[in-house]
Amino acid sequence: MVTLWCVLTLLALLSPEAFGTNAGVKVKVTQKGLEYGRQIGIAALQEKFKTIKIPDLSGSESVSPIGKVSYSLTGIQILNLGLPESKLGLVPGTGVSLSIANAFINLHGNWRVKYLRIIKDSGSFDLAVSGLTISTTIAVKSDDTGRPAVSGVNCAATVGQARVKFHGGASWLYNLFSDYIDKALRSALQKQICPLVSDAINEMNPRLKTLNVLAQVDKYAEIEYSMVESPAVSNSSIDLSLKGEFYNIGQHKEPPFSPSPFSLPPQDSNMLYIGLSAFTPNSAGFVYNSAGALSLYITDDMIPPSSPIRLNTRTFGAFIPQIAKLYPGLMMKLLVKTAKEPTIIFKPNYVTLQVNSTVTAYAIQPNTTLSPLFILNVDASVSAKIYVTGIKVAGALTLNQIDMTLGTSYVGPFQVKSLDNIFLMVLKVAVIPKVNARLQQGYPLPAIGKMNLVNTQLQILKDYMLIGTDVQFT
């Protein structure tokens, strides 16, 4: 039943503490998404209705001209049911409405009667119920953990027509009291429907708790997808505003910047649209930089064996003679470390990453101690390719250019420009592959249960990227 309103999986991540904050991530569920939910959910609801249990019924009625007739109906089972007409709609400001029309149920059971004190008769019967209508509203709210919770309100069920056909026994007799039997069966059936609908809605809640309101990314970071305001339910879509912010695990420290307002375009060819602003990846940069995770030691074994450039004082001594004189024949090690969090910029069809870092060069002494040689300030411009894999966003970086200046020298003055080619090679073959290996693992999108994204397209727009996708639940 949870799939009937799969659109609700992202609907009610209501977090009152976050109100007043701009969204880092926005989600729009379209009419196409609602239609998918209706198709799958009606099938699930139909299976739910197959569990209807009509209890054995008994009673007595005065039937002219023979007097009091006692009857019992036992072993009532559903043979067939159908929900041919259904509609899932939006209730602005509330949630989702479900209406079912012209449903039918066919049942079979046994009957027995006793009249004139001593005369008994029995047989079987078939009950055909048609014109069954059901309507309910699914209200959406937040539980105390910031996850969605749903409840059914205003359920109504009406049985249009019911025809009883008896088999066996004296036909003249059961035709006399068929109206009484018809009424009893219709009443018993009608009492079953709304409780089953309510149960089906309530059964969604344990599954909704699987929504990754707080999704762990790795040992450093987690991402929060709680809502920053109530869902905006219109006549055509459900629009959600999610926090979309990375945090250090166990330490929710806000970055020194906040999301800028943005709006999703009026597209509706996909079931779901997810807009991730530049704030979300930039908050990731803040988190990883704060955790000290954006640093990397580079050693000679990370340089391809075919490269003529080696990380040793002989290679660097060719450009900085003081190094070869002071530290002859030693291997070297580089420490690449961000000076501040990287900045991602989204422009139409283009993503750039500005990185301010330092590179500290060391000579490795025979006793493994490190002797500092120099520190360079490196500003790098990087292009990013972003794509969706599974239910994650992943990426790959390409180094465009670097600008280096001398920060500190422990070996005297030298021309930094002479090292450009060396450090371009080192960054391309040692640093960028390490970063890309992590980016290729991806970062989770908002999801619930076994949700898959299909027919996915990604656009880079000004200040945010837009993911248009259809959804499949298994």
UniProtKB/TrEMBL annotation:
Keywords attached to this entry: Antibiotic, Antimicrobial, Disulfide bond, Glycoprotein, Immunity, Innate immunity, Secreted, Signal
Location of this chain's protein in the cell: Secreted
Subcellular location, principal: secreted
Alphabetical list of SUPFAM superfamilies matching this protein: Bactericidal permeability-increasing protein, BPI (SSF55394)
Subunit composition and interactions: Monomer. Homodimer; disulfide-linked.
Domain topic, free-text comment: The N-terminal region may be exposed to the interior of the granule, whereas the C-terminal portion may be embedded in the membrane. During phagocytosis and degranulation, proteases may be released and activated and cleave BPI at the junction of the N- and C-terminal portions of the molecule, providing controlled release of the N-terminal antibacterial fragment when bacteria are ingested.
Record-given protein name: Bactericidal permeability-increasing protein
Protein's organism: Astyanax mexicanus
